[in-house]
Amino acid sequence: MPTVAITGSASGIGASTRALLESNSINVIGVDLHNAEIEVDLSIEAERSKAVSEVIELCGGSLDGLVTSAGVSVPFDPARMLTINWFGTVDLLIGLREALSSGTGVAHVVAISSNSTTITPNVPDLLVDACLQMDELAAHKILEEMEGLEAMAIAYAASKLSVARYVRLNAPTKEWAGSNIRLNAIAPGAVLTPLLQGGLDDPTFGAAIKQLPIPVGDFGSPDLIAEWIKMMLSPSADFMCGSVLFLDGGSDALIRPNDWPVSMKLG
Ligand code: NAI
């Protein structure tokens, strides 16, 4: 029976994915604050290491798939949000890479990014660079210089942009594609989960979220995102490498119709 580790398995997209995979006879190792096989706080470095070693132990050193869905959103302390969403993702990707490459077949990873990567204006390159250089202190310092509400929105978008960039930078390399691992991301838009509800219930962010245009007419459902994750964990995704799949009801396409594709500039 294949084994897939899911962070954030206790709620929302992670919980829907867990239920769908288990109903398809896939063994799931859940990682979350509560209600999971491995209960850890991914905002703490030592607990991220603990999560990695416990997943390796539970899967016997060979993992078929990984979904990094643990995350928080606005309103939340900006520095801690950046740490959970980015370091809580990348440390697990790095820590579990060897276990993913240890099976006989192709392993698949789905990292959960967000459409906030492309529709949040003015995310500082320096902040994303600090994340990609794994410089947590520098990243927190940049956020400290911003106003509270702006810092929250920027921290969220920067954490998710870093996830998408990591996928693009690493998926095609010998450590990932060359080691029989397909690394891809999903960039959801507004999906009705406890995380989105927390934003909707906030007076400031709630109004902003309600203004987000969704051409298909409504929020997405976590069960629908789970269907795509399941496909991206299956052999159907063996030719998929470094993709960031937008599942956002058309918000990104509506807001920036001409920004994609961007052609390469040579010379
Ligand atoms: P959710 O709140 O329903 O589930 C997130 C899970 O992450 C929870 O079970 C929570 O306990 C866990 N988690 C949070 N902090 C943690 C920590 N420090 N250590 C361990 N686990 C922790 O949220 P949802 O909506 O399912 O989100 C899943 C992912 O999708 C997140 O990364 C989120 O940023 C992303 N996303 C969600 C969107 C939405 O509209 N719901 C839109 C775009 C991206």
Describe it for me?
By secondary structure, this protein is an alpha/beta fold. It has one domain (3-248): NAD(P)-binding Rossmann-like Domain (Rossmann fold), CATH 3.40.50.720. It is 47% helix and 13% strand. Strands 3-2-1-4-5-6-7 form a 7-stranded parallel beta sheet, with helices on both faces. The termini are far apart. The structure holds 1,4-dihydronicotinamide adenine dinucleotide. 1,4-dihydronicotinamide adenine dinucleotide (NAI) is lined by residues 8, 10-14, 32-33, 41-43, 69-73, 84-85, 112, 114, 188, 190-191, 193-196, 222.
Topology overview:
Blueprint: E1 3-7, H1 12-23, E2 27-32, E3 38-39, H2 45-58, E4 65-68, H3 78-100, E5 107-112, H4 116-119, H5 125-132, H6 136-144, H7 148-170, E6 181-188, H8 194-200, H9 203-211, H10 222-232, E7 244-247, H11 251-255
The protein binds 1,4-dihydronicotinamide adenine dinucleotide (NAI).
